[in-house]
C-alpha cells in the first residue's frame, strides 16, 4: 500500500492503489495548494509518491460489521438492516467522537475526511493538547476493542467525483456533515484563508446536496450549522424561523442572520443553499445550529489512548472554555477578550454526539428543512472565567484573569436569549457544566500541561487588520 500525500495536492491523500481512483483535484484544492501550502511545509509530515495526483476512495477495511451483529440485525430477512451513516469530517474534534458514538450504537459508519485539520496544525505550528493517533490507528483500535468496522474514505468533498464515488460505494441513509473549516479566527487571518474557508465550506456542502439528489434521494442530511449564524440580536433567538406580522400580514420566515466572521458567514450561505434544495428537490435536512463545544472525553474516546480526542487550546482553533482550562493549568491568566460580556450557547461534547444521534434517529421529512439550536446552557465569557477560577482554586491553582483588547468585532455587552427546546423534546438529556466536569477538564489539562506551547495562547488574528497580503506564519 502506498501512503502518499502529493505536496501540490495536499487535501487529497491516496492511501491505496484502489481501483476507485478519480479525477484530478477540484478548484478548492487548486486554490488551497497555491495559496496556503509550500512543499517544504509538508516535509517530514507524510511520505510522497511518484504516482500522478489523484484522489482515491480508500476503504480502511472491507470487512462488514458482522463480528458483533447489531441487535436489530438478524438472519430473519424481514428485520431492518443497520442504518448507514456517513460522517464527513469524522477525523475532527466533534466528528471523531460522533463517529465512535454512532458505531457503538450499531449504526454502520463510514468516515469521509481529507485530514486537512491535521494539516492546518502543521501549517500554523499548532498541536492538540492531547497526543492523537492517526486515523488509521484510531479505526484499527476501535475494531480491535469492539469488533466494529468503520470504513474510511480519504479525499476532499469539494472534488465531486470523489464524493460521488464515496456515496455510490457506501450508500448512506444519513450524512452527518462536520467537514468544514470551523475556526472563525482562521477565516480572518488573511484574504486567502477567508476565500479558502468560504469555498471549502459552501462548495463542499453544495456537492453533498448534489450527491444526495443524484445518488440517494431519501438520504437525510444532518448538517452542522452554528449559533453564530444569528449573531446577537436584541430580541429572543428562535430555532431557525420567526413568525413576523408586517403591515397587517403574517409569515414565518428564516430567522435573520447576522454572522460576524467569514467562517460564520459560510454557514449562513450553507443554510440558504440547503433550504433552497429542500424546497426545489425535496431533500430532507436538519441544520444543527451548534454553540461552543467544550470537553474532551466521551464514553468511547475514553476506551483507549489511541481513541483519544484532540483538544485545541491555541488562539485559532481553541474555543473559550477549553482554552481557559488549559490556561489555568499552566498558570496563564485567562484571556477575556474585551469586556467579557459576550454570551453564547455552550454544550458538552457528550451532548454533541447525543444530539446528532437524535437527529439521525428522527429524520426530517422529504422537503423539510429543520433547524435545531444545539446547546444546553448560556454563559458570558466573564462567567466562564469565574467558574474556572473557582474550580481551579479547589485544585490549588492560582487562577488570574486578564483583559485582552478584543481582536474580534463583536458586541461585548448585549442581550442574549436563545431557544433550544427542540432537541430536548426529542429526548436530549444534557450534561450541564458542573464542578465535577470542570475538575475533570482541569485535571485533564494539568495531566498534559507539559505539551502546552504558551506562545499559542495570545490571539494574533485581528478582525480589523485582515488584509489581502498572505500572513506569515511566524508573525
Ligand atoms: O480566549 C478567548 C477565546 C474566546 N473569547 C470569546 O469567547 C466567545 C466565543 O469564542 P470561541 O472562540 O469560543 O468560539 P467561536 O469563535 O464563536 O467559534 C466556536 O463556536 C462556534 C459556535 S458559536 O460561538 O457561533 O455559537 C462554532 O460554530 C465554531 O466552529 C467554534 O470554533 C467570543 O465572544 C470570543 O471573543 C474570549 O473572550 N477569550
Automatic annotation (TrEMBL):
Stretches of the chain forming a coiled coil according to its record: none
Gene Ontology MF terms: sulfotransferase activity; UDPsulfoquinovose synthase activity
One Pfam family, short name: Epimerase
Swiss-Prot/TrEMBL GO biological process terms: cellular response to phosphate starvation; glycolipid biosynthetic process; sulfolipid biosynthetic process
An example Gene Ontology CC term for this record: membrane
Chain ranges of the NAD-dependent epimerase/dehydratase domain: 85-373
Signal sequence annotation: none
Superkingdom, natural source: Eukaryota
InterPro entries the UniProt entry points to: Epimerase_deHydtase, NAD(P)-bd_dom_sf
Family named by the database record: Belongs to the NAD(P)-dependent epimerase/dehydratase family.
Name of protein: NAD-dependent epimerase/dehydratase domain-containing protein
Organism of provenance: Arabidopsis lyrata subsp. lyrata
Amino acid at each position: 500500500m502506498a501512503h502518499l500525500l502529493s505536496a501540490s495536492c495536499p487535501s487529497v491523500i491516496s492511501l491505496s492503489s484502489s481501483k476507485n481512483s478519480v479525477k484530478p483535484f477540484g478548484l478548492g484544492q487548486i486554490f488551497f495548494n497555491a495559496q496556503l501550502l509550500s512543499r517544504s511545509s509538508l516535509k517530514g509530515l507524510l511520505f510522497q509518491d511518484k504516482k500522478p495526483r489523484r484522489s482515491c476512495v480508500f476503504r480502511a477495511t472491507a470487512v462488514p460489521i458482522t463480528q458483533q451483529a447489531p441487535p436489530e440485525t438478524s438472519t430473519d430477512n424481514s428485520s431492518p438492516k443497520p442504518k448507514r451513516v456517513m460522517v464527513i469530517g469524522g477525523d475532527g474534534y466533534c466528528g471523531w467522537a460522533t463517529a465512535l458514538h454512532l458505531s457503538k450504537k450499531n449504526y454502520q459508519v463510514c468516515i469521509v475526511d481529507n485530514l486537512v485539520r491535521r494539516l492546518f496544525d502543521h501549517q500554523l505550528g499548532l498541536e492538540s493538547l492531547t497526543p492523537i493517533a492517526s486515523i488509521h490507528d484510531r479505526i484499527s483500535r476501535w475494531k480491535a476493542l469492539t469488533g466494529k468496522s468503520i470504513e474510511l474514505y480519504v479525499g476532499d468533498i469539494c472534488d465531486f467525483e470523489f464524493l460521488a464515488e464515496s456515496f455510490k460505494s457506501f450508500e448512506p441513509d444519513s450524512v452527518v456533515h462536520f467537514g468544514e473549516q470551523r475556526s472563525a479566527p482562521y477565516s480572518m487571518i488573511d484574504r486567502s484563508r477567508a476565500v479558502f474557508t468560504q469555498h471549502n465550506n459552501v462548495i463542499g456542502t453544495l456537492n453533498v446536496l448534489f450527491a444526495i439528489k443524484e445518488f440517494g434521494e431519501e438520504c437525510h442530511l444532518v448538517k452542522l450549522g452554528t449559533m453564530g449564524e444569528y449573531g446577537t440580536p436584541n430580541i429572543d433567538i428562535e430555532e431557525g424561523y420567526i413568525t413576523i406580522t408586517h403591515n397587517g400580514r403574517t409569515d414565518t420566515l428564516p430567522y435573520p442572520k447576522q454572522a460576524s466572521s467569514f467562517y460564520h458567514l459560510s454557514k449562513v450561505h450553507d443554510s440558504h443553499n440547503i433550504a433552497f434544495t429542500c424546497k426545489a428537490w425535496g431533500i430532507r435536512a436538519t441544520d444543527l445550529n451548534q454553540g461552543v463545544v467544550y470537553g474532551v472525553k466521551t464514553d468511547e474516546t475514553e476506551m483507549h489512548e489511541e481513541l483519544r480526542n484532540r483538544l485545541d487550546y491555541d488562539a485559532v482553533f481553541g474555543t473559550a472554555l477549553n482554552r481557559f482550562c488549559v490556561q489555568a493549568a499552566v498558570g496563564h491568566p485567562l484571556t477575556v477578550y474585551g469586556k467579557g460580556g459576550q454570551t453564547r450557547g455552550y454544550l458538552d461534547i457528550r451532548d454533541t454526539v447525543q444530539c446528532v444521534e437524535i437527529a439521525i434517529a428522527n429524520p426530517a421529512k422529504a422537503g423539510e428543512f429543520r433547524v435545531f439550536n444545539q446547546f444546553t446552557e448560556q454563559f458570558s465569557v466573564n462567567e466562564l472565567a469565574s467558574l474556572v477560577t473557582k474550580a481551579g482554586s479547589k485544585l490549588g491553582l492560582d487562577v488570574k484573569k486578564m483583559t485582552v483588547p478584543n481582536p474580534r468585532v463583536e458586541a461585548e455587552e448585549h442581550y442574549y436569549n436563545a431557544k433550544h427546546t427542540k432537541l430536548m423534546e426529542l429526548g436530549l438529556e444534557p450534561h450541564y457544566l458542573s464542578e465535577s466536569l470542570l475538575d475533570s477538564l482541569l485535571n485533564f489539562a494539568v495531566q498534559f500541561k507539559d505539551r502546552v506551547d504558551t506562545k499559542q495562547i495570545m490571539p494574533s488574528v485581528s478582525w480589523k487588520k485582515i488584509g489581502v497580503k498572505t500572513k506569515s506564519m511566524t508573525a
